[in-house]
Specification:
Mean pLDDT: 94
Low-confidence stretches: none
Shape: globular
Number of strands: 3
Number of domains: 1
Strand order of the largest sheet: 2-1-3
Helix content: 40-55%
Strand content: 5-15%
Distance between the termini: 24 Å
Order of helices and strands: EEHHHHE
Largest sheet: 3 strands, mixed
Length: 104
């Protein structure tokens, strides 16, 4: 189980954590998955702390670490796109890492 995102959906005001189940108990206890999960959590933390360069570096590490058991390329492409936008137009000072969905 990994966290994918923290979002507010259109028409709501409360942020929701979105998770994905990637495998069974054996997979979750494997050293490879634990390494990936740690990298992924660090990427989310860097992203939410506005440490864009660190988050980008961790995205590349996450993609490599997850390549054998998960197809998460689209997720990391999404974060890379958001980071590119935030580098050009930073989020407001009170941004809490929540993505606000503007469409369903």
């Amino acid at each position: 189980l990994i966290e994918l995102d923290l979002i507010t959906v259109k028409g709501k005001s409360e942020a929701l954590h979105v998770f994905a189940l990637l495998g069974d108990k054996d997979m979750a206890s494997s050293a490879q998955f634990k390494n990936f999960a740690d990298l992924h959590a660090a990427m989310l933390s860097a992203y939410r702390a506005r440490n864009w360069d660190k988050a980008e570096n961790l995205i590349a590490e996450c993609q490599q670490a997850s390549s054998d058991f998960a197809k998460l390329g689209d997720l990391y492409d999404l974060y890379a796109s958001r980071i590119a936008l935030f580098k050009e137009t930073p989020p407001p000072a009170d941004w809490d890492g929540v993505f606000i969905a503007t469409s369903k």
